[in-house]
Structures are given as C-alpha cells and as structure tokens.
Write a structure and sequence with these properties.
The structure holds two protein chains of two kinds. Chain A has two domains: 118 residues, 3-Layer(aba) Sandwich (Rossmann fold); 90 residues, Arc Repressor Mutant, subunit A (Orthogonal Bundle), CATH 1.10.10.10. Chain A is of the alpha/beta class. In chain A, strand 3, helix 3 and strand 4 form a beta-alpha-beta unit. Chain A has a five-stranded parallel beta sheet with strand order 2-1-3-4-5, sandwiched between helices. In chain A, helix 2 packs parallel to helix 3. Chain A is globular and about 50 Å long. Chain A is 42% helix and 22% strand. The longest helix of chain A has 15 residues. Chain B is an alpha+beta fold. Chain B has three domains: 148 residues, Beta-Lactamase; 98 residues; 150 residues, 2-Layer Sandwich (Heat Shock Protein 90), CATH 3.30.565.10. Chain B has a five-stranded antiparallel beta sheet with strand order 4-3-7-6-5. In chain B, a hairpin with a 2-residue loop joins strand 11 and strand 12. The radius of gyration of chain B is 50 Å and the shape is rod-shaped. The chains are: A alpha/beta, B alpha+beta. Chains A and B meet through helix 1, helix 4, strand 5 and helix 5 of A and helix 4, helix 5, helix 6 and helix 7 of B.
Chain lengths: 220, 449
C-alpha cells in the first residue's frame, strides 16, 4: 500500500511519515501543492493524506484538479482551521475523510486504513479473505487459526493482494503499490517476497500467470 | 425632520396661494375702478343731455324740457337721480320723490364725484358739474345706484376665484408629481439599500443623479472597506490557527511518544493540557471569526448548501447509517454569512448526529420577523433539569470538561452574534433532543428599542 503525505511543516511531515511507515505503508511525501499534484498525477497511490494549507497551491485546489482528471485515490484532508465551511468544501471537492489538527497519530492511521478498505468495498472490521485474516495494527495474518508474523514489505504485498482478490496483478503494479518513490525498485525483488508469502501461507494462495503477473485467491 | 416632498409641497402651496390672492385683489380693484369710470362717462352723457334741455323763461325761472329727461329718472327710487340748482332755484328728478341729494358748492367749470348713501339704503355714486348758462350758475348733480355694478363685480370675482382655485389645485397636483419624479432616484436607492440588507446585492448602483452620487459612492466605499477588513481579519485568524495547530499536533505526538511510555501520567497530563489549549484556541478563533449580522450584503443560499452539509455529515457518520431529512421553504436565501451559517448548522447537526439513534431532521422557516432553524434527533434527549444548565454552559464552557457541548457553545455564540438565541427541548417529531435557533431579521432588531 503506497501513500502520499502532503504537509508543509517539515517536522510534522517526518512524524507522519514515520508513523505511517510503521503502520505498514510505503510513504512518499510532498511539501507543497504543485509537487503534490504532480506526484498524485503520476504515481498510483492507494491513499493520500493532504494538508489544506499548502504553499504554492491550496490543498483544496490540488484535490479538485485530481478529481477533475479522474484520479479517484481516497483522500484524507488535514486542516488547522476546522470550520464546517472547510469540511463541506472539502467533501464537495472529493475528499473521503477529514481530520482536524491537532490529532493523534493512531487516529490518522485508523482513518487511512478505513478509507482504503472502504474503497475496496470492505466497510468494517479486519480485512478477511477465505481463511486469511489480516491484523493491520500488529501487521500479522491469521491463517487457519494460526497467527503468522510478517515483515513490512510482506505485509504491504499481502494487503494489496487481499484488497484485489481474483485480479491479475502485474509485477510492475505490485512494485508501484508496495514501494515508495525513493526505494530501489527492482521488480524481481517482488518474486522473492511472493515466494516468502507462499512459504508462510501455502503455495496455492498466489497463482502465477506467465507473462501477465499474479492472481491472489483464484482457486476459491 | 419633515420629508423633502412635504417641505417642497408646503413652500410651493403657500407661494402659489399668495400669488393668486394678490392677483385676485389687483384684478378686483382694477375692475371696480373701470366700472366706476364707465359709470361716470354715462353720467356725463346724461348731464350733457339735461344741460341741453335747460333754459330760463322770461321770468328768469329755470325750465327743463321733459323730452330731455331719460325715462329711468321717473319711477320713484329707481336708482337714477338728478338735481339741478341755479341760485335759489332747484329742480329734482321725479325718482327722488320726497328725498333730496346733498347740495354741492362748485364754481363754474368744476366737477366732483363721491360715494354716498342714498334712499332705501342704496349705495350711490354722485357726480356733479357746474356750468354757466346765460350768465347764471347752474350745478347739475347726478347720482346712480352702484348695486348692479357691484353685483357684476361680485359675480366676476367669484368666477375668478373659482378658476384660480382650479388652477391652484392643478398646479399643486403637477408639483407633487414633479417632486415625486424628482425624488424617484432616492426611492430607487432606498429599495437597493433594502435589497442590500437582505443580502441580494453586495453594492449599490452608482448610476444615480449627480446630487446622490457622492453619497452612494461613499457608502459603497465603506461597504468594500468593511468587507475587506473582515476578510483580512479572517485570513489573519486562519493563519494564526494554522500556525498554532501544527506545533500542537507535534506536541500531541510527542506526548504519545514511546519514550514517555514509562511515565504514563506525564503523557496523560500533557495530552490533557494540549487538548485544553486546542479547545481554547478553537473557541476563541471561532468567536473572533464570526461576522455576525454586522455585514450587509451577506447571503447564504441554504437550499443549495444544506444538501452538501448533510452529505458531509453522512460521510462523517457513515458508520451509523443515519437518515437525515430536511424541510426548507422554496426560496431559502438567508441574509447571513455563509461561513457563520454553515458553522451554526454544522454544529447543531453534528450534535444531533452524535446522539441520534437513526434519524435526524432539520427544519427551516423564514418569516418577516426572522429565521427559525430546528434540528431534531431521535437520541436520548436531555432531561428537563439539565436543559437550564445546558443553556448556561456556553458561558462557563472554559472551565467545564473538554469535549462536552463545545459545538453547542459555538452555535450559541453564532446565534448571539445575530441577536438570536438557541432553545433546547424535546423533539415532538422524533422524540429526542430538539435545538431551535431563532435569528431575528435586521428590520425587527432595529425596530425594537
């Protein structure tokens, strides 16, 4: 799961990046509206945390531009002003959730998880597919009643698979959603992580489609 | 101060009446003088006629040829009299009967005219002239009744007064119309001011007569300055909030840092203080940002904005599956600031959504006296003994537990800034809590002393 965090305050940006990385996301950051808009247009983010008071281009305008160009990535807006006018304008512009400063980091992580799940049709509770149940807080997965620990990348990869069951996912798509912008993105590394997931959760879980990519949970 | 219309009207009426009265007087006097002059001409003709009929007989007695006497000198008191005196001889017209005209002492060639009271209380004009006839002095006096002439003059004066009155009425009507036409731009501007008050326009039309333009321009300048000042101060407050909120967020994150897990009390204490600061900043910023009823030209299209607000609340409370219904009048544009009204409705609806089990209803009524907003919910409501305390909480919120009724307190501030109030009670419709916001219109506020 890849996130874009847009916040102009450097210290807060770092705290957010750390907290969201800890929560199992690949995180890119931007500190102004123009860069944010460009990143959002070019990278396939699974969610965006967007501050409204941004230099160079207001957050609301960035969001409107994305929506006008058909970018439907779920967006949580962060704002200091916390007025109803801003909330209404934010939701009108296409925001999915709203968080007023100051906020707890746990609250932000919970909101981000919620908008991603909602986008994939899961409205509540833990992410669950067949015999698998993903615990987003502890970054573990329960498989046939047995809790299995996951590394950060394994967790991100599995979550992406679980949110897109039965769909062919190419290596490059998986790479784009599992790694942040600055990571070394060698798509062959994905094969390594898929092998590890198969080792932990059973080989039949992820099917390889030669020349196309992978399909999660196709057997069920 | 009397209206310009009535002042102009009174001035014009007084001067018109004075002009007409003077004219009437002059015309009456001239008319009378002309009539009397005509009468004297007539008398002189009669005198010439009588003189031609006068002679002295051989005994020196004065004789008057009867065929020289006009018929109207014959009937008694006919209003036409003559008297001829020569020495101690006296001839009188038959019409004088047993009366006489006063004697006049005149030398030959002289003449005299005067008014006098005649028989049967007639008002007479007497004209006398002295001659010398065959070496003897003769004075002929003729008096005629003025009544027919005066009657004629009176009739003329009445007719003249009638025509004058009609002309006066016509001129006054014309003047009233002209003044109203002349003052029409004032009325247009006043109507525009009313529209400004209702928020339908945000400045006055400057296409007005030259006399009015400086006033309208000045007003527009003031309006713009006020609007800009409000926008600037809102901007500044927003910036302040922004500037403070980010450090507060960081502080909050530091208070929750793992390194403080060994000292949970320290962490809890810091978090509580940060929360308190957040609430104080929130409340004071919101209070300072309220534009209230101060700014004319503000306009809130509730019919367009309420659905978006309800949609926002549905998104914020999407886990609750609330049914939010609304009832609006067809033309629902409120003369109020958009941010204020969204803040008021947002806080009331947020409170209702928080407590509601499944249903929330908002009702808007607009009357001449003001706006009434009602927000119902089907939640637990509020016991009557707590309603009073709730109504006072706004003022004492700063000391009260955080997170309770902050939204309602802000809503109370907003209502107060519009000279309105919030009422709390039980919803008859949904059975839960009911908040009623009553915002009087500006007209009804300025009408109450």
């Amino acid at each position: 799961m890849r996130l874009l965090v847009v916040e102009d305050d450097g210290e807060l940006r770092d705290t957010l990046r750390q907290a969201l990385t800890r929560a199992g996301f690949a995180v890119d950051t931007a500190d102004n509206g123009e860069d944010a808009e460009h990143l959002g247009d070019t990278e396939p983010y699974d969610a965006v945390v967007l501050d409204l008071g941004l230099p160079r281009r207001p957050g609301l305008e960035v969001l409107k531009h994305w929506r006008a160009r058909g970018n439907a990535a779920p967006v949580v807006i962060l704002t200091a002003r916390d007025t109803w006018q801003e909330k209404v304008d934010g939701f009108k512009a296409g925001a999915d959730d709203y968080l007023a400063k100051p906020f707890h980091l746990e609250e932000l992580v919970a909101r981000v998880n919620a908008i991603i799940r909602r986008r994939h049709g899961e409205t509540r509770g833990a992410l669950r597919t067949g015999e698998l149940q993903l615990d987003e807080e502890r970054q573990t997965v329960t498989h046939r009643g047995e809790t299995v620990a996951l590394t950060g990348t394994e967790f991100r990869l599995l979550r992406y698979f679980m949110l897109h069951p039965g769909k062919i996912l190419s290596k490059s798509e998986l790479t784009a959603h599992v790694y942040d912008f600055d990571s070394d993105r060698d798509s062959n590394v994905i094969e390594v992580y898929i092998r590890r997931l198969r080792e932990k959760l059973g080989a039949e879980l992820i099917e390889t489609r030669r020349g196309q990519g992978y399909v999660f949970g196709a057997k069920r | 101060m009397r209206s310009i219309q009535s002042r102009l009207g009174i001035g014009f009426t007084v001067s018109l009446i004075a002009v007409f009265a003077l004219q009437w007087l002059v015309v009456s006097v001239t008319m009378r003088n002309a009539s009397e002059a005509g009468m004297i001409t007539h008398i002189e003709h009669d005198i010439d006629n009588l003189l031609a009929g006068l002679s002295f007989d051989a005994a020196g007695r004065l004789q008057l040829a009867p065929d020289r006497v006009e018929k109207y000198y014959l009937p008694p008191f006919s209003g036409n009299y003559f008297r001829v005196v020569s020495g101690d001889q006296l001839l009188r017209s038959r019409s004088l009967w047993d009366q006489d005209l006063p004697g006049v002492a005149l030398a030959a060639g002289q003449q005299e005219s005067r008014h006098l009271a005649g028989p049967r209380s007639q008002s007479l004009l007497l004209y006398a002239r002295a001659f010398e006839l065959r070496g003897r002095p003769v004075v002929i006096s003729i008096a005629k009744d003025l009544a027919p002439v005066e009657q004629e003059i009176r009739r003329f004066r009445n007719r003249y007064a009638l025509v004058s009155a009609a002309a006066l009425a016509l001129l006054l009507a014309l003047q009233a119309w002209l003044v109203r036409q002349g003052l029409r731009p004032l009325r247009t501007t006043r109507a525009e001011l009313e529209r400004l008050e209702r928020g339908e326009i945000d400045s006055l039309d400057e296409n007005v007569p030259a006399e009015l333009r400086p006033l309208v321009k000045e007003l527009n300048t003031r309006l713009l300055a006020m609007k800009q000042r409000l926008a600037r101060s809102r901007q500044a407050l927003g910036n302040l909030a922004h500037a403070m909120k980010t450090p507060l967020t960081l502080l909050m994150h530091q208070a929750a840092d793992e390194r403080l897990h060994g000292a949970p009390e320290l962490s809890r204490g810091m978090t509580a203080q940060i929360q308190a600061m957040k609430q104080l900043v929130d409340r004071e910023l919101k209070r300072a940002r309220l534009s209230g009823a101060a700014l004319p030209g503000a306009c809130f299209d509730i019919a367009a904005e309420l659905p978006a607000l309800i949609e926002t609340l549905r998104s914020l409370y999407r886990d609750k599956e609330l049914e939010i219904t609304s009832r609006l009048p067809p033309a629902a544009v409120l003369p109020a600031d958009r941010e204020d009204m969204l803040e008021l409705l947002g806080n009331l609806l947020d409170n209702a959504c928080k407590w509601a089990r499944s249903r929330v209803r908002v009702e808007v009524d607009i009357a001449a006296s003001g706006i009434t907003l009602r927000v119902h919910d089907d939640g637990p409501g509020c016991p009557p003994q707590d309603l009073v305390q709730l109504a006072q909480r706004g003022a004492r919120l700063d000391e009260s537990a955080p997170g309770h009724g902050l939204g309602l307190a802000i809503a109370m501030d907003i209502a107060a800034s519009y000279d309105g109030i919030l009422r709390f009670g039980r919803s008859e419709i949904l059975g839960g809590f009911l908040v009623t916001a009553e915002l009087p219109s500006r007209e009804s506020v300025s009408a109450t002393p």
